[in-house]
Amino acid sequence: MEVVLLEKEAFFALFRKVVEHVEANRKDTEDKWIDGAEVMSVLRIKSTTTLQKLRDEGKIRYSQPQKKIILYDRESVMEYIEKHARETF
Question: Which strands sit side by side in the sheet containing 62-66, from one edge to the other?
């Protein structure tokens, strides 16, 4: 068995390099399309009627790959939130 000794600074420099490498190679990105439940959670609405109204008025983008499946564009939902943000004084 070999024992490797490192100075404190060298250990933390090595640790930072490992963290940078792991973060650079991460594959878990957010999905572009999200379901209605997640949209309602992000917008903090409880009514599917309100969600349908936003969809029907063209305020958020959506896709309907099957009759009962409706997916929403995450970026569109975030743009909707930003559009209605108020500046502070």
Answer: 33-35, 69-73, 62-66
